[in-house]
Amino acid sequence: MKLFSLLSLVVSPLFIAVNARQNIRDAPSTTLDIQDGQTGVLMVFPPAQTFTGTKHVPDADHPFIAPGPNDMRGPCPGMNTLANHGYISRNGITTFEEIILGAGEAFNIDPKMASGMAAMNILTRGNPFVNKVSIGGVSPLVPPLPGQIDGPVTQGIAKHGRVEGDASLTRSDVHIGDNRNFNQTLWDQDLEQLAALGDDGPDGPATVFNLQTLVAMARSNLETDQVLDPEFAIPFRRLNLVYGAPSLVLGQVFFLNTDSNATDTDFVPSVFANGTTQQSTKRIMTSFFMNQTFPENWHRAAVPVLGSPIPAEAMAALPEWVPGHNDENGVFVADPKPPAPFNISQSCGNYWDVLVNAVPASLANVTGIFKQNVDLLTGILFNASGCAEPIAPAGPTNV
Fold first, then answer.
1. Is 299 contained in some domain?
2. What span is annotated as the signal peptide, if there is one (predicted)?
3. How far apart are CA 1 and CA 234, in angstroms?
4. pTM summary value
5. Measured between alpha carbons, how far is 379 from 120 in angstroms, rounded to an integer?
6. Binning pLDDT at 50, 70 and 90, where does residue 25 land?
């Protein structure tokens, strides 16, 4: 679902887990590195927040400013909201460090989770050598990879196929409509589910999202798009985002202790819920989805958000949906399952799908700062996967 590019910024909640392994990366070097006329920029982890509690967002330093004609915006309302308020660059061209800082400051997303978001986006649709990614489409500010090893342009996260995909709550499938901009018709259909199944709240009856509502919305969008879109596809990495939707909207995700020996979990507030009420309402979600601005009197989560497995009820409620695609006759068929040993868990299978099908194979043979950055980003994804062994990038190029 396109809004969840924010966390995948769209790493799926299934794909975020705390792991004691170190990142796979050579010792960082600051040696000047110029390749194909581009100067490499070494990625580093930014300083952690000094205050990690709830607070009103946005603050006075981050007012809403509508994007200009040359500013990049894309299918993810969360990323667009960050840019519209200046928590990441307002031009929509952002970096590894900026994603971690902006997501932490605005949404109180834990750096472990934010780094996974950044890694996914930059590896699949950015330029890891110069440490830039567009949250929308092609921009002259994000050059093609050195040697054009992934095609003549760097696409940005709005490009369909690697992470952006079908069955969005508020954006059309790319093959049948506009995959970047808010679709009022889709949102109205979603709100019909809320009116039928939602909880009562301070804004009135049936105005608070609950798990039943989110599952019904997801099922409706999957069923409708599968019929309307002849090229409908939900590979492993996309279906994980569909399953993750309730966690993100409801304000409930599992928090895993960073102690590698810990097994206890607690529910904590999540991304879009108001941190003071732990509720996501029609008013709040309309503000994010349609207006791409922080709602009035909204507070970020009171505890840093760190995702892991989605609620078991959400997955159990959609057993008919497995990773798959429409065949030439419009019949939905299942994709092959991940091979051993990557079939041990949802998060490990998702890691396999991302590295094998979404991260271009040309990144496996880079050098210098380019290699150090790729090693850092792929190491972050490996650490989050729970897999026993890493995978080198092996996806198609120039797609």
1. yes
2. 1-20
3. 10
4. 0.91
5. 11
6. low
